[in-house]
Amino acid sequence: MTLLRRVGLALFAPVLAVVVALLISTAVMAALRVDPFQVFAVMLDLGDTPSQQVTAIVVVLNRAIPLFLAGLAVAVAFRMGLFNIGVEGQYRLATIMAAVAGAAVALPGPLHVLLIVVVAMAVGAFWAGIVAVLKVTRGVSEVISSIMLNFVALGLASFLLTGPFRGSPEGASIISTAEIPESGLLGGLNGLFDAIGLANPPRQLYGFLPIAVLVGVALAVLLGRTRFGFDLKATGLSPSAASASGVDARAMVVKAMLLSGAVAGLIGLPDLLGQTGAYTTDFTSGLGFLGIAVALLGRNKPVGIALGALLFAFLDRALVPLQIQQFPASVVTIIQGTIVLAVVVANEIARRLTRRSAERGGAEPSSAPEPGTGAVGPPGDASAEGRPSTRREVQA
Amino acid sequence: MTATAGARAPRTGRGPLTDLLTGGGRTRRVMWLVLAALVVLSLVRVVSGEEALTSASTLRAALLLAVPIGLAALGGLWSERAGVVNIGLDGMMILGTWGAGWAGYQWGWAAAVLGGLLFGVLGGLLHAVATVTFGVDHVVSGVAINILAAGVVRFLSELFYTDNPAGGGVTQSPPVAGDPPSFSLPVLSSGPDLLGTLERQQWFLLSDLAGIAKGLTSGFGVLTLLAVLLVPVSWLVLWRTAFGLRLRSCGENPAAADSLGVPVYRLKYVAVMISGGLAGLGGVFLVFIADIYREGQVNGRGFIGLAALIFGNWRPGGLAAGAGLFGYADALQLRSRTAVVALLLLVALLLLAVAVWQAVRRRPVRAALSAVVAVAAFVAWAVVEELPPGIVSFTPHLTTLLVLSLASQRLRMPKADGLVYRRGEH
């Protein structure tokens, strides 16, 4: 019963938000004389043949992997009330450096990939570290500094690509870095489809998928089951209380940002190692900002973020079919934007509802846990997310 | 910077020189600082030979670029003084540009102003509903509005501008019909053009002053005038009226304000909507610069406006100075890539002054650090000929970051800024 109730509460806000967002988008489209039902039909239509349908699933999964990583990167910082809006710059800079490092060396397979991953994480962590250092030593708000560093990172990346790291010949329409050799790339996972008896699509499922899942599990354990994760959340909820119990709040800021940046460094790798093999002028952009949305949607928990990433990837898949059928493709962005806005409002309502029910029935069984369950359960329940609104109310 | 000087002012037994430099209150100290900055800038201009540093055309561009940033910062001032952090300024500016482009191509420049204003107010209303009524975290709501605004304008453009006989496309509007009237100061900046003549002499300091004065007084648009006037008007309303006092009390201590009968929710709504309107006006201004709405026109200026607000310590005069600084950096990188290199010399000189100051105050580590960076900047200036476009493009953002990291420790934001206020929960 308590489990059911907990799951229901956790799902209530996002589901409500998606429904409200769909209603709003329908109204907007109808007001502008675009038939919303045709648009939704295009979105839901995955194709006629089994091969087409599996291809659509691969496209969604391939898009969801970087979105999931971006959501995780944002969520790590969110957990302690830090807004890492600089994920965009962190992953772009990390990807170009990783691409160059990967192209410059020749190593046996797994080592080569490992090197690329390590370089990407290090660059991402370094770029996020600047934000953390400015915050703890100079008191600069991480929101402003990470936004400014986004512009610096994008400018730097474009300079590096067109200048010292240029690998494509002069006059090529798309400028790119040198290609990473075969040993540094990750093959597709399409054998999986044969194994479970589905049609093998022409498009490759990214080999980065297991790594992303691994990162998600590792972060879930780190944030939910370790001392570090607890300190992180405690510092986010009340820096002064955490300091009083012996946690160095300033060091936690630096650690959280470094971790967030390291995860952010991975965002570009699924595309880099699975498809492009080089950083190009038209490399996937905007994942950092979508990551913020995905993290909000998933309420900063890995499982939720995975679901949010899948939802956003599913919406993104519709971009091309919508364009082909002469619908305004930006409908997708509007739905995503309204989902985010609706989800934050719904989260707030859900939080208030849980608190009200807790206040009303102080002696209800659900709010008086047995000694065992309270300690074992993860500290991130629906009633107390590590979001700054809670922290600020604690302070006030 | 002036704050420390002010704290030490009441000391007795100063010499006449100290009195001249540090006495006479805040106004005189600010004037001395401005004058010192001009002298250093002029010196850098003479040494580096970069006329673009103080030319009238650079300054005119700087003013044009400073106005949207300043309007965004003013928008931030209104909302943050009422206790609502507005990261969504950028999105509201984006909405403003679209509104201006859409109304402007059909009905001329006055309609463009109204259109941008209206779209900005709508963005502000959305933020107010989320933060004030639903108690959503302010930064979260702002980020969501930024994402949403980008989607909304693209959607509207796809609907209204593709297949439009007047022109335009998925990413831009048809050209805006008609320009707002502009004027120049008679005799000094037009006609006999005394300032322009003086500027061309290339004399130390005098020509620089003339160039700056001419840049600020010629080709002055009506909207520029309006924007500049909005700074003192905002100050008057917020600091010299009962309405302003009540509004600011919502940003300092909403519970106390509420207990005195101040309509906190309503005032927050008003403040955030005014904030959105001002940001929208900033967007209108961008449309007038290009004579067209183009996607990506805002390019993060809302965030720079927010930085200008913080740099200006949540005060109208300070944020205007911040906007001027960032506008200048932006204008310089647009006009001349070699002039940006000359900025390195300026940085070197300023850091040298910091090093001397720290040495006098017996802080050897900080002094040494400043001196090392100063030497590095000087060497970079001497070695680098011209910066590549990718690097130059982020000059204003890097300037913002540097200035904030130097200045942000002495700042004081409104006490309840960013806190969600729920009646009866405090």
3D structure, described in words:
The complex is a heterodimer of chains A (396) and B (426). Chain A has 396 residues and is an all-alpha fold. Chain A has helices spanning 2-31, 36-44, 50-78, 87-104, 109-138, 142-162, 191-195, 209-225, 227-237, 239-244, 249-266, 269-276, 287-297, 302-317, 319-324, 331-360, 371-376, 388-395. Mean pLDDT of chain A is 82; it is low at 363-396. With 426 residues, chain B is mainly alpha-helical. Chain B has 19 helices and two strands. Mean pLDDT of chain B is 82; it is low at 1-11. At the A-B interface, helix 6, helix 13, helix 16 and helix 18 of A face helix 7, helix 14, helix 18 and helix 19 of B.
Based on the model shown, name its key terms.
heterodimer, A: 396 residues, mainly alpha, 18 helices, B: 426 residues, ABC transporter involved in vitamin B12 uptake, BtuC, two-stranded antiparallel ribbon, 2 strands, 1% strand
Supply the number of helical segments of chain B.
19
Distance between the termini of chain A: 35 Å
What is the CA-CA span between the terminal residues of chain B? Answer: 36 Å
> What class would the helix/strand composition of chain A place it in?
mainly alpha
Main sheet specs of chain B: 2 strands, antiparallel
Helix-strand topology string of chain A = HHHHHHHHHHHHHHHHHH
CATH topology of one domain in chain B: ABC transporter involved in vitamin B12 uptake, BtuC
Tally of helical segments of chain A: 18
Biggest interface, chains and residue tallies = A-B, 57 and 51 residues
Strand content of chain B: under 5%
The average pLDDT score of chain B comes to: 82
